[in-house]
Amino acid sequence: MFSKHLERRKSFLVLTTLAALLTGVVGYLLMHQLQTQSVQSVQHSINAWRMALALLRWTLIAFVALGWNHLITRLASAGIITHSKVTSLAALRWRTVTLLVLVELVLGQGVLVNALSLMSGTLP
Predict the structure, then answer these.
(1) Which residue from 10, 108, 102 is spatially nearest to 52, judged by alpha carbons?
(2) What are the tens digits of pLDDT across the range 57-87?
(3) Number of helices and strands (H, E) in the chain?
(4) Which sign does the torsion angle of CA 44, 45, 48, 51 carry?
(5) Cβ-count burial of 72 within 10 angstroms (0-12 exposed, 13-18 middle, 19+ buried)?
(6) Contact yes or no for 96/78 (Cβ under 8 A)
(7) Nearest-angstrom CA–CA distance, 124 and 114
(8) What one-character-per-residue DSSP string does 48-94 give?
(9) In contact, 43 and 34? CB cutoff 8 Å
(10) How far is the C-alpha of 119 from the C-alpha of 3, rounded, in Å?
(11) Alpha carbon distances (Å) from 97 to 37, 103, 105
């Protein structure tokens, strides 16, 4: 019983550390690029990658929507979650996808910023 909790804590710690390291590496690379190139060239490279990154985010949302049931049945068959949790997790699929789409629209696509600037009469 305690080994499962210890294993979950270890995996959470590993994933958190990995996320922090990746954030640090990306920050370092961006800072290095800012120091070696002008701000306009950095903005140009960000604009060049914007469509590809948006496509990647929408693809990940589609994978979550389409692979949710398969993932929870695999987790149940592996014994990570109980079979009684499968139905409650299956009901959360569309809520999760809706939340991901809203986050993508607000943060990724800047819909809220564009709507506010349109209402105020200034475009970014």
Answers:
(1) 108
(2) 999 999 999 999 999 999 899 888 888 889 8
(3) 5, 0
(4) negative
(5) buried
(6) no
(7) 8
(8) HHHHHHHHHHHHHHHHHHHHHHHHHHHHHHHTSS-HHHHHHHHHTHH
(9) no
(10) 55
(11) 38, 10, 12
Residue that has been written with the tokens 């294993």 in this structure: 7
Token representation of residue 77? 């068959």
Joined together, the tokens standing for residue 99 give 């939340």
Stated pTM of the model: 0.60
pLDDT digits (tens, 9 = 90+) for 8-60: 888 888 999 999 999 999 888 888 776 666 667 767 877 888 888 889 999 99
Six-digit token string for 87: 């139905």
Q: Which amino acid is at 78?
A: A
Residue with tokens 């490279």: 45
Q: Are 42 and 34 in contact (CB under 8 A)?
A: yes
